[in-house]
Design brief:
The chain is mostly beta strands. The chain contains no helices and 13 strands.
């Protein structure tokens, strides 16, 4: 009599943990979306992390295929408006995703109007103010110059409107 013994490969399991780090920006953070990738292909459903949620863990993931070849897992974050995203490598089943706030930029233009007076106008000085304090260098407008534009200005939390003093 012959006895047949069958060994069935049991696929080992693994897990991937995400740690979310926010650098700068408003206190209320946007909802983010994470996609687990396996061998470069989207795997499973997109996961959403709401404001204040800084971690997520995928569990019970197959570590290998049926032939024992190890899967490569990575995590992608879908675009988050107002932030740049840096996704670290998966090391020991953990990955860190850092979102760094992009300070919005603006520009402010001033137009000087002279009403009456001599044809030759005096030089004037303009000081841009932000939150009640001088911001940047004083700008001089010489006779005949009637406009100036500040560009690439960082918008930060402004408790008072930006205004111009001349």
């Amino acid at each position: 009599d012959r006895v047949q013994i069958t060994n069935t490969y049991i696929i080992p399991k693994t897990e991937i943990a995400v740690e979310k780090v926010w650098e700068g920006g408003p206190a209320v953070k946007p909802t983010i979306q994470l996609q687990l990738m396996r061998n470069g292909e989207a795997f499973g459903k997109i996961v959403e992390l709401m404001n204040g949620t800084t971690s997520y863990r995928w569990t019970d993931l197959d570590k290998t295929d049926q032939e024992g070849k190890e899967y490569i897992y990575t995590v992608q974050e879908l675009t988050v408006d107002g932030y740049t995203s840096t996704v670290g490598p998966v090391e020991s089943g953990k990955v860190q995703i850092t979102n760094t706030y992009i300070v919005p930029k603006t520009e402010i233009a001033v137009e000087k109007v002279w009403s009456g007076g001599p044809a030759v106008k005096p030089t004037i000085q303009l000081q841009l103010m932000r939150n009640g304090e001088a911001y940047g260098e004083i700008v001089e407008l010489m006779n005949g110059t009637t406009s100036y534009q500040w560009t690439d200005l960082s918008l930060i939390h402004i408790s008072e409107p930006t205004r111009l003093l001349s």
